[in-house]
Amino acid sequence: MTTREYAFVPLFEKFIAYSYKGKRLKADGNRIKPQTVDNYMYVLRYLREYEAEYGLLLRIKVMSNKNKRMFHAEHNYWKKFYLQFTNFMYQKKDCYDNYVGTVIKTIRIFFNFLNKDMGIPTGAFYKNFYICREDVPIVTLMPEQLQFLINDTKFKEQLTKSLQKAQDIFVFGCTVALRVSDLFAIKFTDVEHIGAYYYLPVKTIKTGVAVRIKLPAYAIAIIEKFRAGSRGRKTIFPPVPRTRFNNQLKTISEMAGWINDMGRLRTKRGIQIKSTSQVNNGIYRFCDLVSSHTMRRTAITTMLMLGMKEHVVRKISGHTESSKSFYRYVNLVQSYLDNEVDEVFNKLVEVV
Question: Contact, 294 vs 140, CB < 8 A?
């Protein structure tokens, strides 16, 4: 029996390099998106930190012959890795189920790469790496909140110039339903002027779906405002660090008075726990949960709430007919409609 070993991290680095250079492709033959490779880099960082934390070097052991003793040894090795690494993510990095699940999913993809692309038979132990998921509540603006940001000039005048720019980007994002990466990649030359109307034809980075969106007057005004201060920049919106942009949105939302208590329970290994955030003694307000992701969620829910047909919204958002994430928006809209119906019937009871 011959036994060979490979260091885990150098193989993972090769996995990233192959993905970045196009040597590793998706199942449909397309290249791996740069955003996906960026996510792989985060996983690599966690793996290195994990090795440093526990003073070990992960390895991949390959057996040329079947051996029951070696099989059980490897089974126990990778079982211990999964439990120890996920504990590291939960306890040391304070991550929740969704993010840990995303990291584990990447590691499973890496093992598939070793077996299928590199010809390194690792065994199927990685298939026991469970991918945790949690149903995180969707935080969106109601139509009246979005109308407030669009129309209330007195409120906007209270903001600093930096916050005014952030609000404009936020309003635009809450209108066009694009993913954040697509939103900040839009160029001035992407906007089409046809007759009296303006359109934004884009191909989403994540799905590659072609979308053409007719722009309302206030969105066009935002584009022209950024064009005036672009100084030769090709993209409509200047690059903004995500953390800074999210903090700006939270500040704007707080100044708008959206401070109602939302609470928030997250899950670790499927068990609900209170978030460890120190914000307001661990109690989340609406403004604390607003982020760049709120833009796309708000645009989709607004379209549905105001009567746009589902298949049209899916066309704009790039969701497929079977998309589970899309129907989370539909469920949110249903609860909104239920509240409106209850309000009407309660008034009828009061009259009687």
Answer: yes
The conformational region for residue 177 under phi > 0 = left, psi -120 to 50 = alpha, else beta, is: left
User: How does 278-288 read in b/e, with b if 16+ C-beta sit within 10 Å?
Assistant: eeeeeebbbbb
Over the stretch 291-334, which tens digit does the pLDDT of each residue have?
A: 999 999 999 989 888 888 888 888 888 777 777 778 777 767 77
267: β partners: 272
Q: How far apart are CA 14 and CA 110, in angstroms?
A: 10
Report how far residue 300's alpha carbon sits from residue 330's, in angstroms, rounded to the nearest whole number.
9
Q: Where in the chain is the domain with CATH 1.10.443.10?
A: 143-248+295-347
| Main-chain dihedrals φ then ψ at residue 285, nearest 5 degrees | -100, 165
Q: Residue 233's CB: how many other CB atoms inside 10 A?
A: 14
Q: What is the CATH number of domain 143-248+295-347?
A: 1.10.443.10
Sequence-ordered alpha helix ranges (H) in 177-292: 180-183, 217-228, 242-255, 286-289
Query: Strand ranges (DSSP E) for 184-235?
Result: 192-194, 197-203, 210-214
- Tell me the C-alpha distance between 213 and 262, whole Å: 33
Q: Is 140 left (phi over 0), alpha (psi -120 to 50) or beta?
A: beta
Q: Which of 117, 315, 297 is nearest to 202 (CA)?
A: 315
- Per-residue pLDDT tens over the stretch 112-147: 999 999 999 998 999 999 998 887 667 889 999 999
Q: Which two tokens stand for residue 153?
A: 């000039």
Amino acid in the structure at residue 22: G
CB 146 within 8 A of CB 302: yes
Torsion of CA 310, 315, 319, 323, to 10 degrees: 40
Which tokens in the block code for residue 24? 């590793």
Of the candidates 150, 160, 290, which has an alpha carbon nearest to the alpha carbon of residue 220? 150
